[in-house]
UniProtKB/TrEMBL annotation:
Cellular component aspect of the GO annotation: mitochondrial intermembrane space
InterPro entries, sorted: MIX23
Renumbered residue ranges of the record's region Disordered: 45-75
Domain of life of the organism encoding this protein: Eukaryota
Alphabetical list of Pfam families matching this protein: MIX23
Protein's recorded name: Caffeine-induced death protein Cid2
Family: Belongs to the MIX23 family.
Length: 199
C-alpha cells in the first residue's frame, strides 16, 4: 500500500526554500492523491484477507481485469486505507502548510535581502519622475520580502490542496462502500478520533 510521504523537519529554512517546500507537497500528492484510482484498484485484490494486510498492496497491478475495476471496495478495507494512508497524508501536508504560514506571517529578522530592498526603496523615493519625457519612468516594481513571497505560494498551495482533496474524495466515494458526504467532515472526524497525532 502507498505510504504517506514522511513529513520533513519543519524549520523556517525549510519554508523559505520554496523549491523544497513545493517538491514535498508535489511528491506527497503524487504518491497518494494522483494515483488514487490505481491504489483503489490494488485494494480490491487483497480484500479477501481479513483483516486487511497493507503489505499485500505493495506492488500495484494496473492491468486488472475490467470486471474488477468497478467492484465496490468493502467498507472495512476502505476505512483502513483512509485512516492509515489518505488522511495521514492530508494531515502531513496541512501541518507543513500551517507551519509555513505561521513562518510567513511572523517577523523575519534573518531576511538576507532586507538591506537591498531598503536601498531600492530609497532610490525609488529619490527618483525624478517625468512621464511626459519617459512614460515608463513612473514604473517601479518593489521586490517582495521573502515572507510575502512565501505567503503567496502558500495561498496557491491551499487552493491546490482543496481541489486535489475534492477530486480524490470524489473518486473514493464513487469506488468505496460506506463512504460519502463531504471530505472535510470525514477528515475532521478522523482528526478528532486520532487526535491529529498521525501527521
Amino acid at each position: 500500500m502507498s505510504k504517506p510521504t514522511p513529513t520533513p523537519a519543519l524549520t523556517p529554512q525549510f519554508c523559505f526554500n520554496t523549491r523544497v517546500l513545493r517538491d514535498f507537497l508535489r511528491l506527497s500528492r503524487a504518491s497518494i492523491d494522483d494515483s488514487i484510482s490505481t491504489t483503489l484498484n490494488a485494494l480490491i485484490t487483497p480484500a479477501s484477507t481479513s483483516p486487511f494486510d497493507p503489505s499485500s498492496t505493495s506492488v500495484r497491478n494496473p492491468t486488472l481485469p475490467s470486471s474488477l475495476t468497478r467492484q465496490p471496495i468493502p467498507s472495512s478495507t476502505t476505512r483502513t486505507f483512509l485512516d492509515n494512508v489518505l488522511f495521514p497524508s492530508w494531515q502531513a501536508r496541512m501541518g507543513v502548510i500551517q507551519y509555513c504560514t505561521s513562518v510567513a506571517t511572523s517577523p523575519d529578522p534573518d531576511d538576507p535581502e532586507v538591506l537591498e530592498r531598503e536601498t531600492l526603496n530609497r532610490r525609488d523615493a529619490e527618483r525624478v519622475v517625468d512621464e511626459r519625457l519617459d512614460p515608463y519612468s513612473g514604473r517601479f516594481f518593489p521586490r517582495e520580502a521573502r515572507t510575502e513571497e512565501l505567503a503567496s505560494i502558500l495561498r496557491n498551495e491551499v487552493a491546490v490542496e482543496g481541489i486535489v482533496r475534492a477530486r480524490t474524495w470524489g473518486i473514493v466515494t464513487d469506488r468505496c462502500e460506506g463512504v460519502g458526504g463531504n471530505w472535510q467532515a470525514e477528515f475532521d472526524r478522523w482528526k478528532d478520533q486520532s487526535g491529529g497525532r498521525r501527521a
